[in-house]
Design brief:
This protein is mainly α and 216 residues long. 76% of the residues lie in helices and 0% in strands. The longest helix has 66 residues, at 55-120. The chain is elongated.
Length: 216
């Protein structure tokens, strides 16, 4: 059977990119041939411009004509191959886009399935009740803070006249205490009631040093 139909091909399957590379390689080889033909035509054109009419010039023209025909044939073949390469590149781009689309669709299906499983476990009514409880607790906390911050018998309004009077009274009190602290004889002297005569119920007069220590 293998002799009739051939052996089974076990090699790697051809790919679109491989076919594009083969066509591009063929196009490059044709470009090399075209460059060689163009060089020959340029040489013949230079020689023909310097020759006189005659059999030699006619023969050279015939040779140049064949070269021109070959060049056109190669150019037509190159154009066909370039078009094939372009078509295959378009097909490869479409294949790549299709693969990307399929990958995106599979990812969306998997995500959709996961979301359904996760959201299916959530009780919306329970969340709403929890939100209501949190709101009640916040309101209760605000009420507690307001109650704890309440003032007790503190006058709300104090006018400027009352403030001036209070400050003046404090100033007079400070002046009075300062004058009482200095005394008549200066700092360090004992008050008058401690330097007066000894009361009748004291047997001995106090010593001056001990009196000062007691006053200090």
């Amino acid at each position: 059977m293998n002799r009739l139909f051939g052996a089974k091909n076990t090699g790697p399957k051809p790919t679109l990119q491989g076919a594009i590379n083969n066509v591009d390689t063929h196009v490059e080889s044709i470009d090399v041939k075209l460059a060689k033909l163009n060089a020959e035509l340029t040489t013949h054109q230079t020689r023909l411009s310097k020759m006189r009419d005659g059999p030699g010039k006619s023969a050279l023209k015939a040779k140049a004509l064949k070269i021109l025909q070959r060049r056109k044939m190669y150019e037509a073949q190159r154009d066909q191959l370039q078009q094939q390469s372009w078509n295959m590149e378009q097909a490869e781009m479409m294949t790549g886009n299709l693969k990307n689309v399929m990958t995106t669709v599979d990812a969306m299906k998997s995500t959709n399935k996961t979301l359904k499983q996760q959201y299916g476990k959530i009780d919306i009514d329970k969340i709403e009740r929890m939100q209501d409880e949190m709101q009640d607790l916040m309101e209760a906390g605000n009420d507690i803070q307001e109650a704890m911050g309440r003032s007790y018998d503190v006058p709300e309004d104090v006018d400027e006249a009352e403030l001036d009077a209070e400050l003046e009274a404090l100033g007079e009190e400070a002046d009075f205490e300062s004058s009482m602290g200095q005394g008549v004889g200066g700092e360090g002297e004992l008050p008058g009631f401690m330097t007066e005569g000894v009361p009748q119920f004291v047997d001995e007069p106090p010593e001056a040093g001990k009196v000062q220590q007691a006053a200090g």
